[in-house]
Write a structure and sequence with these properties.
By secondary structure, the protein is an alpha+beta fold. It contains 5 helices and 3 strands. It has a 3-stranded mixed beta sheet. Strand 2, helix 3 and strand 3 form a beta-alpha-beta unit. The relative contact order is 0.15.
């Protein structure tokens, strides 16, 4: 029977164990969303954040094999839904958007996904 992770501590433990997997050695892992704030519900997905470690191959960012590995790892033991958030991709999108908004004289969005995850 698959285990259902119900709270922040269980999810943090999961992310910690995932971060020790050799397949994910090139990344820092974290968690975001409702499991962090304690507002998760039974239908809430676990938002797993990936950030490429300094000096590693940038071609790994967004790699489907990495996503597939995480989904396989999760589905073998856990029944929770998951979402994978590639922080490097969000960051590059945020930079491009901020540059465009500045050129148009539009104020930046203080509630962007990237800003909410990194906290600034």
């Amino acid at each position: 029977m698959l285990k259902f992770l119900e709270n922040r501590d269980e999810v943090v433990d999961l992310v910690h164990s995932l971060s020790e997997r050799p397949e994910l050695k090139d990344f820092k892992l974290g968690v975001a969303g409702s499991y962090v704030t304690g507002l998760n519900k039974k239908a809430s997905a676990i938002d797993i954040v990936l950030k490429l470690r300094e000096g590693n191959n940038k071609d790994l960012v967004g790699d489907l094999d990495i996503s597939f590995y995480i989904h396989q790892y999760m589905s073998a033991s856990y029944s929770n839904k998951i979402k994978i958030i590639w922080l490097d991709l969000l960051e590059s999108d945020e930079e491009a958007l901020l540059k465009f908004m500045a050129s148009e004289g539009v104020e930046a969005n203080p509630e962007s996904a990237y800003t909410n995850i990194v906290g600034d």
